[in-house]
Write a structure and sequence with these properties.
The complex is a heterodimer of chains A (509) and B (505). Chain A has 509 residues and is α/β, with parallel strands linked by helices. Helix content of chain A is 33%, strand content 21%. Chain B has a 7-stranded mixed beta sheet with strand order 7-6-5-8-9-11-10, with helices on both faces. Chain B has a 4-stranded antiparallel beta sheet with strand order 1-2-3-4, with helices on one face. The chains are: A alpha/beta (509), B alpha/beta (505).
Amino acid sequence: MKASRRQFLQSGSAALIGLSIKGDRAIAGSFVNDSFQLGHQLRDRAQFPAPKQVEKRSVVIVGGGIAGLSAAWRLHKKGFTDFVLLEMNDQLGGNSRWGENEITSYPWAAHYVPVPGPKAIYVRELFEELGVLKDGRWEERYLCFSPQERLFLYGRWQDGIEPAVGLTAADRDQFRRLEDHIHTFRATSKFTVPMEVGFSDSTADLDRISFAEWLRARGMNSRILNWYLNYCCRDDYGASMSKTSAWAGIQYFASREPEEKGPLTWPEGNGWIVRRLMERIGHFVQPNRVVHKISQTNKGTSVFSGDTEYRADFVIFAAPTFLGPYVIEDMAPLRDFDYSPWLTANITLEHLPASYGTDPTWDSVFMDSPTLGYVDATHQSLRTHIDRTVWTFYWALAEGSPAQNRQLLLDKDWNYWKEAILHDLERVHADIRQCVSRIDIMRMGHAMARPNVGAIFSAERRTLTKPYGRILFANSDLSGFSIFEEAQYRGVTAADFVAGRLAGHRTSS
Amino acid sequence: MQPLSTNLGILLFITVSLIAACGLIYELIAGTLASYLLGDSVLQFSTIIGCYLFAMGIGSALSRYIDRGLAYRFVWIELLLGVIGGCSSALLFLAFAYTQGFQLLMYSLVVVIGILVGLEIPLLMRLVRGRYHFRDVVAHVLTFDYLGALGASLLFPILLVPYLGLVRSAMLFGVINVLVALWSTFLFASQISAVRALRSLCVVVLCLLAVGLAEAKRITATAEDNIYADEIIFSRDTRYQHIVLTRFKDDIRLFLSSHLQFSSRDEYRYHEALIHPGLSAIPAPRHVLVLGGGDGLAVREILKYPQIESVTLVDLDPEMTKLFSTNPMLTALNQKSFLSPKVHIINADAFPWVDSNTDSFDFIVIDFPDPTNYSLGKLYTTAFYKAVARHLSTQGLMVVQSTSPMFARDSYWCIAETLKQAGLQTYPYHVYVPSFGEWGFVIAGHRDFQLPASMPAGLRFVSVNGLPAMFQFPPDMSPIPMPPNRLNDQVLVRAYDQDWKDISH
């Protein structure tokens, strides 16, 4: 009673002298885009209805992420119209899905594409078609605006994510040595995007040890350097550098040499690309279609979805490859494919925290945080004045085993994750709770392929990049890791293969 | 006859000095405010003192009609004075900013306060009449009355204005009036019937004024007075920026988020130079677009061309364009340019507006604040200039406010290079504006620009003969190679920051 009376007096007298006590906002939100229920039905071999109708197509594309959409884009460009793309969710895009509220559109996962190098010919072709690349110049509005990235360390913000303040001579020396190594690797042209272009057996040794071991063997023990490299592994692969193959760690740095200050990004992230692709090939796409069985003979394939059996000459299986054994008849279980669980959140802010710290920046990272930081969805807005915004918060659950973390994602409720996210933000923005009005959270048990030690040179992976009878695997995980360019490459090359076979078939008949 | 203890007597007469001080303070505040805001302090003080004294006479005359409940009415007068006088300064500031009726309100307030003050002393004298000889009452009351006036007139310039500011000084003396009211309910308790109710009312009014005193900072931040050399006559945080107007004698200055935008003494130099070299060079200008320029001063210059049919002004902040459409002092400065039927004001963020609008214009004026941060920097990029250039008619030209080629030489030539990289021909020029120093502009277009052969009559600074010199850059401001400012690599914001750092060190 006493406390409440005091509270009353405090708030009463505060109101009287016009000092409003800054209260925390009520924060709304929920889990969104859950799709594990559908996946678990496949895993548990649930009963699906028997087909009532048969449809014939030259090609069925399974999965409407970037790989599947790119396969459709490619087939369409080659003049094919006799194909269908089946997507299990109601929204297309996979990891490039996006959301929208009254403030802005925002990404749910993949939110940028590094400025593609000359070897990424299909990405460049797509971007020329979409007006992102014009007469050899990248469209300014799609390049990430200044300032791009910032890192919070030692109680202050610095420009860029690579730590640059407070380095000792030893730290600097190690950063320099790593740069030299990367330079040498880059010069070999064996680390490329897409990876298949430069892939060489001569780099196989690097896939036998972890990135952490590789660094240790070269005396690179700087805490700052190791934090940074571990961050890069978590960010691109969802795995710590002690689990990541050294080959993948090196690939991250050696495969790129940007010709323009990037990356390419849009308010809805790579959802922008999905939208543009859907404008072109949307009429071949059927959402909410779970494929529960695929069988094949040497004459053709059958794809079962709902009460329909699609009979097709070829199947492009662009869904995550780990689903293959649960769907494709007689396919052996996979051993070398591992996936990182992720959590993303879209956080609506009514205003920026007073503790924001710098000019509004695209990507903000906190040193020594288990999370990956947040990206501002209104950063690519042309407006000069922005008060409300949406931050996309990224968290790869990289510590511990993926299976345990998947269980954690399922077990804990929205409130648990909301608090965990706010606690992380409060490390830097003490007043964050006064700014946030909504937190929507997306849980992804198998967000991205994880390039564990041995995964890149795995015979299983390399076999699946080749035709599996009349089924072409096309997900980015065939490259060992999930990035836009790999997904697009796999989709396009699968489409090219199928198109070639169909055309050959046509001319020979 | 009720004997009164000496102590109580002294307190009574201190009350007299206090109320006298309050009355004088309100009068001084009105006079000072009017001088600040309207200028001509002789006229303001004379008319205000005259009105005030006359109103006091009315009050004294009216006092004879009060014959019952003297003490009760005295308390009420003190309360009213506390509220009206205490809020007078804040009300006047707000009226100046948001209405056109500043003077009407000011004289009304002076008259009302004068009448109330005029009532005070006669009533008080009659209240204590029974306690002293009439001779003593007159002597004592008038002595303390004049003593209070002396105190107030010394306190006002030495302590109150410098340390409290006008708004809080008024509030403080409002509080004193109300304390006198409260104290009077004890002093004359026997002569007041509903004494408890009256006391409660006093306490409530006291609390309200105390809140006002604490909150007055929002109305004019006195701390801020120290930042600006001159008296602040308007200060407001809008959703987009912090608008401050200062005045020193006849010089009005506008600051947006602490950056000087113009000084009324020499702004004609800036605005004539911004508009006429470009606009006079267009054969038949009909439609003009102004981006920024919410003070209406550029529009004033544009309206000197009778053949112009429409001026579209896009400015982010509605409070800014409203202020410069309504405030008499500011509309005198921009010659009511915003009230012209040719002028269309659009309150929007410039880049998205330019991107979505499809109209074409013969002359486009880009007059934004300097690129002090990455948000403003977007309005100085190749992407922005490309988007703006799509609105140029075949004869069209644009002109860009481009910072100082002297103090921010890198920035100036970076802006020129950015316009060039946006595919435009550029014609840089500069002028001297005393309050800014050497200032630069760039004319740009898809076509050649030739110096105009004639200009509107009556210009004070720019002339046809003087033009060629404006396009000459002496060695200390001559071009330096700079990269263009792009959305993904805003070199300009960093250059601008560095340029000004170099000067201040």
